[in-house]
Amino acid sequence: xPTILRPSRxxxxxxxxxxxxxxxxxxxxxxxxxxxxxxxxxxxxxxGKVQAxxxxxxxxxxxxxxxxxxxxxxxxxxxxxxxxxxxxEIDDLRQTHSVGWTFDGWTEGVGxxxxxxxxxxxxxxxxxxxxxxxxxxxxxxxxxxAGVPEQGPDFGVDEVFAHDxxxxxxxxxxxxxxxxxxxxVVSRMKHRGTARRRPVIVSGIDAPAGTPVVAGSREAGTxxxxxDGRAVAIIRLDRITDPSSVTVAxxxxxxxxxxxxxxxxxxxxxxx
Length: 272
Known about the structure:
It contains four helices and 16 strands. By secondary structure, the chain is of the alpha+beta class.
């Protein structure tokens, strides 16, 4: 399958002798200057809310990151602020490079395997993307089947904690390294078991993104991007005591836990 263009994603390149330290000290993931698969990561607020998320891979002496276009400007501004006087070059590639996705390998640009089992992410100069396919629902379809939420289609800035989107279960959080922004909140949620919202796959939907998921008489969450009647929803697990009685827009739907889930419906997280 040729690479498919993902115009909703913006690319950045971090290089220089202190690039690894900057990223190590700021984002959730374990980003190392060595070849291998990409790493899922998030930039958090001091209160632990997700500001940006994406993949990072090492190639050609640099870290290659992507984020949703809606947060790209804010992400760049914050990373320049956190950089201070560190020896790090931050290249904004939004005008010169494109982000793509494939399941069958790539022949142009810089590619890294998606650690969430979602093929490979590719970043290439615009001139090298002439053979890429136009955007379609293929990536979203695979992403939803895997139960992986994405910023933009499924949630916005300051709407979720790292645990809410399963970042801790897909190696997007390094619980061993030292402090990073929002680390205290992440660690507290892990050790106290306070994560009450988690990704859930919802099927049988006949409603747009943002429609509430209702369990009994209470809202349990909202659905994200809908493709072929399916979506990822970030759900309050404690409100799903009977998964067979859940509705979206007044119609019954089916709930399914993602393949990576270590949680169950009906779980009650401790109060903060």
